[in-house]
Amino acid sequence: MQDKNISKSVIRRLPRYYRFLGELLNEGVEKISSGQLAERMRLTASQIRQDLNCFGGFGQMGYGYNVAELRGQIGAILHLTDTRSLILIGAGKLGRAVAQHIDFTRYGFDLKGIFDRDPALNGEKIAGIAVRNTETLREFCADNAPDMAILCIPREGAADVVKTLVNCGVTAFWNFSHYDIHADYPETSVENVHLTDSLMTLSYLMEEKNNPVTN
Known about the structure:
Layout: H1 8-26, E1 31-32, H2 34-41, H3 45-53, E2 65-66, H4 67-77, E3 84-89, H5 93-101, E4 109-116, E5 125-126, E6 129-133, H6 137-144, E7 148-151, H7 155-167, E8 172-175, H8 181-184, E9 189-192, H9 195-210
Helix pairs in contact: 1-4, 2-3
């Protein structure tokens, strides 16, 4: 049973466990100890056991973890066994890259529609889906009831789009727009993606490694 007080840092590690366990399955590995998994993931065995214990007992003393079973259980925790319908707003370079290079179906997501305000893109197909004008969002949402929206649009245009989507019942966002959705809609579920934040973090880590601070 999932504890509502589980920290976000633990939740954010679950997809990484899921990915590594998938790699192990592809290699034909059937079971693995927490120590072996820790070595592969560059974590500690204690950290792995603590993370997994948040969701109940996994593995057996002296045996370790059944790789397929553990991956299935983590997939269920992440609700990857459910099909989530998605729409993507923004058919520019970023939106195209997201639509074309992420295998949504592999993780239980169904990309049902792509929208852009540029009329010149209307009808153009991206990843086999015809682009629709954002003016048709309300009608589309009424007919298809998408679960989530991906925002690949500038911050300036995001507020109006989010307002429309929330009014249509969409309350989960994968947000590349830099618009602070939670500030205006605290009841929504939002995963913000700031690519430049990662780049700046890398800059810090590089400098820390090259010029470590000594006390």
